TrEMBL record, chains A, B, C, D, E, F:
Domain of life: Bacteria
Protein name, UniProt field: Aspartate/glutamate racemase family protein
Gene3D superfamilies tied to this protein: 3.40.50.12500
Organism: Hydrogenophaga defluvii
Family: Belongs to the HyuE racemase family.
InterPro entries: Asp/Glu/hydantoin_racemase (IPR015942), Hydantoin_racemase-like (IPR052186), Iso_Racemase_Enz_sf (IPR053714)
PANTHER family reported for this sequence: PROTEIN DCG1
Length: 243, 243, 243, 243, 243, 243
């Protein structure tokens, strides 16, 4: 089974972090292909970054289709381009935000999200609402660290995430923490040990969900809303999407 | 990894059906222990049946705890005794209704449920509301077959389920069907082929989710709401629960 | 008119407290039959306790049916076994949580719940969501007293409940308090006097609602969802439920 | 105990119908004072009718206050002036729409409303949403009869209401009918017999709820939102409201 | 284009404030007719005040209809009599609360409301729920100033509003402030400068929305719910409404 | 005032249709700049088309910023790239779906959407949910016409839209129709005349809302969620976004 884990930003170090986290939990028969778009932002910290990254995600899914991919993971907590990616393939596509929410809902009655920057909290809130998990999430919290600090100053980042997670534990009436950034994928155990709560991290969660769907033979429905896009012409820089 | 798949009713044939469905999707290192309570209803078709079955589920979790169980599946579509079971163990516990809803949400934008009897539809509706999936479910439909007909008259039952699923496909604007009874666990492929939609069945879905949580090291949170019950005395027929 | 007030736990002293509270508000023609199951937990402080108690509630409803009962009250704030009980009788069945929520909604725009232990708050939250009162409840608060302390150390318990209720009054922007435990049934007036707010207590509320439904000739609907359970075999310790 | 049952419209015959329905269910110690405003519409079939009637309701509550009234019922299904009335008194005030919804929620899992004119359905929908019962109501249906036809051509009106109620029974998946007009208060038994479902009628429901609140000593909260209006000057035709 | 801006209270000074605010933003071809009912409360600070004012609003719409009015604004933050007013005319009718919510939703993801008295917060909460904006509003806050203090002690009122708005900015995670009273219409710029956030004020917002609807040729739908009220007799002080 | 009306697809004829519709309703001092991205799909009929178009929208907003633009309209009914666009400018940005929903909410209590292809209905449903208008929309309907048929076979398209709108009028219990595609911008009057309901079209609605916000001095909040994106490097085909 081949799972393409797409880091929607263009920072190789983060792709490696994500790929390693994915590989760590992958089953014996699973091949993890960790990749990133050729074009796009070095980190995703805004709706604009997300909008650009969504095209890169689509490119990566199309590339994956040429390589017989069994499932896809979109490894940014805003699930950029999720519905679009699902249209481009019969294979299951899992976003790490949804993955984390699904898993958290099975080990606790209520959780809080700890993300990087406060300004991206609204993206998590919109997803919680769209997916139906809003009532399970007590609070979307931010450690107020730029995404790339997870790579550049990991110790300080880790400390802030733990501090915010402990505040969540003591103030929010929760049973679990959801980590709100793909770049935190290697920190799960450390945070969980420090906080004393189940900590749900989306990359690993998504890999297991992707494997599960493949094992179950469940594919993205091509009846109705998520059918392949109607072939059509694209202009300019996107003309390679024409069909 | 040992997963205890609990059929909450006391019909052995259904336990076998469920166990076989679980084994079919289980990973190579997974041992499926399919069981049923010593006491309880032969089928679950009402809130009363569910209430009695929930005690059987608790008994079975406690039995599982004495055998080093890694995860539990509650294989009745009403998820009877789910929260109670989660309190009794650190292991993950998955209900097949929630499992099916989680999986369906990842392969389609909207789904319909096809269950056995119309009168149990309200149980599915309550779960959809509690879990947060109500807006994803277009309709809870019933094939109007008693649960045990799935064992006694499987051909007629299958035909009715397919008919109702086709109605759902053509009338509800959906991308997937969720099967609303553990006893349908062996019919998934046939129904999916006949209907031409992804068909999500809860027993198999729950097994993969349980395996996933175990692989991720995610356990039922013991901080707060789902902590082990406070030890106390129980009277009468339940005095063996005393601690 | 005969109302069976079922204390779902097996602590006689609490049954007496509850029965006295029920009798205090019952109309002149109403006979209160306060009872408790022969088997079950001495107090209800978890989902597991609730699951076991729900069977006791069913037993008590079936007992009541043999005695021409006009209505039932389930006197534990989690409303354990409510839907199951409704299936077993044509008589109205009222849970004390729902009763308190209904009444509170008629005397204030917003209320807070003050319950015993924090861990049971999720049970109240689930009920508020299911019944549709979530938006009326500002906060589910806990005095952090074990249920039986209401019997064993009533003065300390009362003091903590009043303190938490005063916090609710001053911080939550509410007009009324809902008491979140059947064992508080005798404290209503004292708390209301101390807090200066309407205090809604479920046992008394449920008795008046039960009387009201009986006077109106409104019975549990036997059309559809709440019809009598289909007769079937039960195994083991529950074989007496067979029909 | 004195309950003032306010018919918000100015048609005496309807006041009599409503008063008789109220008296029929009132307890032995309850005095029903059925009244109507001196000014206002002869029937309430629009938001405008409701707006005018709300002032009449306020006048009637103020009149009731001068006569030591223990509780008030607003006997129009739109609950016109409910929150305003609650501010004007410490006594409980019950609208017949909310009363019917509360009662229906205790005898069935789902209900439909059968009202007079389709155009007033939106008023019921707004109330269902505000009170939190929207998910319990499958459909708001109209028999398409003007309100006063209930007085002028009662047989035809009754026939249409029964027809619409039967459609609700067969198409909506419900367990109970809520009658959506105070003028139907004398038809409950006939409709229930013809339809074979519990039929909840608001005037009788509200009287029992009002009695219940009085017996429980629960009064409209004067802490916060529903406190007496701040005294102030009123101009023109409303100067008698000045204080 | 003639827009009738109805101040629902009877304080001339406030009508002038509101009229001036409306005129300030009106387009070149727009004539603002600022008016107030002959009868009603001098300020609106309760549901009762609102109920009385709603009749005044209806009178003013009927007066406007005799003068070829193109659109109406109801300039009190509770939108009193909004649905009633819409029935009385084909012209668009805009409430200032809804207008402010609509506009705020377009310039920020989340906002807080700053109103006058805490007791009127529930009115805003009910509107947010009915209109569908509840999830966009973090908090309804009160500066705890009586409405007429906006006229009598404007400096103190302004100071309190700014203080509360700053608390909203720093504590609520918002991007905009909605002013919760028509009497604040002249303070918008000062508050916005002091607080450093977009401040949405309903009178000006409603005038632009009214103009927009007129320019688009969009009128209040007369199909169904908002059709003209059925002509009927009114008694007593309201007999002039008879038709 | 300069409003940039961005047609997110790359079909010039549709840009002209949209620009003409915008110009028709623009105020005397408003300059409409109708534009389209250099790159992207010729029509938008899927999530994938939307994802690509969202980048084009961002490009167009950045282009608009270099020309002193006062407000932006995104003229595709899925509001592609709306939040991203808002981050890139202080000027107001309005999507035509949200614009149509806001306007429809002010002229009717309930509406239905009539869009092009059934598969895009889910996009409208997601927006209705996110914005808070889901309860106001009875049904999202599709005329089942590809977007470009609006240009290529306008008569047939118009006929189908009218037929579907009439079905909505007669079956849905609505007061208004919302047109679900920017390409229908020139058909509003014809459809409204044929259907006999207010028909709300998003391009014209958005232009008036944009003008309104500009006149009110309300700009996209730069405090928090919608602040300018943090400057950062972009790789590959998107490196021109680097800052």
């Amino acid at each position: 089974m081949k799972i393409r884990v797409i880091n929607p930003n263009t920072t190789c170090a983060m792709t490696e972090t994500i790929g390693a986290a994915a590989a760590r939990v992958a089953g014996p028969g699973t091949q993890i292909v960790a990749t990133q778009p050729a074009g796009g932002p070095v980190s995703i910290e805004s709706h604009f970054d997300e909008a650009v990254a969504a095209v890169g995600v689509a490119e990566e899914v199309l590339a994956g289709e040429r390589e017989q991919t069994d499932a896809y993971v979109i490894a940014c907590f805003g699930d950029p381009g999720l519905w679009s990616a699902r249209e481009l393939t019969r294979a299951p596509v899992i976003g790490i935000a949804e993955a984390a929410f699904h898993m958290a809902a099975m080990v606790a009655t209520r959780f809080s999200v700890v993300t990087t920057l406060g300004r991206t909290g609204i993206i998590a809130e919109h997803l919680l609402q769209q997916y139906g998990f809003a009532h399970l999430c007590r609070k979307v919290r931010a450690a107020e660290i730029p995404v790339l600090d997870l790579e550049h100053d990991p110790d300080a980042a880790l400390r802030k995430i733990i501090e915010e997670s402990l505040r969540a534990k003591h103030e929010d009436g929760i049973g679990a923490i959801v980590l709100g950034c793909g770049g935190m994928a290697d920190l799960t155990d450390t945070i969980s040990d420090a906080v004393g709560l189940p900590v749900v991290e989306g990359v690993s969660a998504a890999v297991k969900l992707a494997e599960s769907l493949v094992h179950l033979g469940l594919k993205t429905s091509k009846h109705g809303d998520l059918d392949f896009p109607r072939p059509k012409a694209f202009a300019g820089q996107f003309r390679h999407f024409s069909a």
